[in-house]
Fold this sequence. Notes:
The protein is an all-alpha fold. The protein has helices at about 1-5, 15-25, 35-40, 50-80, 85, 110-135, 140-155, 165-185, 190-225, 230, 235-255, 265-270, 270-285, 290-315.
Amino acid sequence: MTATTAAPPRQGVRERAGAYAKLAKLSFFDYYLCVFVVLALLPAAAWDEPRTWWVLVLFDAGWVGVVAATVALDDVTGVRDGSDARNYDPQESLRARDRKPLLDGRLTLRQALRFGWGCAIGGSALWALTALVAPHRPWWALAAAGFSVVISVQYSYGLKLSYRGGQEAVIWLSTGLCVLIPFALLNGEMTGAAWLACFLFGLWSLMVSVYSNINDVDGDRVAGRRNLATSVPPGVYRGFIAGLSLAETGAIAVTAAVGAVPWWFCAFLLPVVGLRARQAHAGLVAGEVLSARKQGVTIHRWGVVLLVAANLALVHKG
């Protein structure tokens, strides 16, 4: 523990910047793909409006700040309660320990706290600026933005929502709202395709985390983190993951069944359904949970590509 509290060795600018980039988890860029999903949902005329691009750029920059604050404060808590040291065992090849610069003393807890709160303030300010330049400001979208900041920053710090049974809900809601908020600010109201995009984008993020939680269950239990993985029997938790996998297919089918999107729209997302079944087999049948987690990242990225293509086809056809 002394390495995390003592002053880190003297570093150059590049090394220090790299440590902060690791702390902010900038290599995990999946969250920020939300703006491409939103852009594909907009009518072609909106692409010619400069305000559209300002809203998307400012929102995504603010979202980077909010996420960086969330993961930095999560690392602070993970070091303090020892869960990161247990969950990021150096012998575990699929969970790189160098993603946690607090564990090897490249940054101190004090530096991480300053960085986290600075990112939270900067991200919130950028979102406020986003609302000012947006063509629409529905009250529920502004409320959703404020709610997203609060639950994200309090994920593992302050209220520690992820330690009090809120982990899964926070991940799903915060990432789903990062589609809803900019779309509402640009379009003024939601559409069926936009609701589906919110649901799927949030779910795709959650389907990475739920497999990590199986791997981390012992360390999280010792640290006092009460999520579903630590609170229910293993069989029940695996049933929960299977249910989430089926919910993805169900949401796509229901959206088409009610006429919110045409049936051909579903064909674009069939590869996601196939990859999800493969992930479920790896994580729930073969017991390769970290491999399943890695597959979840791949599914998220390909899902965005396919969802963007489907929405572009829908908007163009409309």
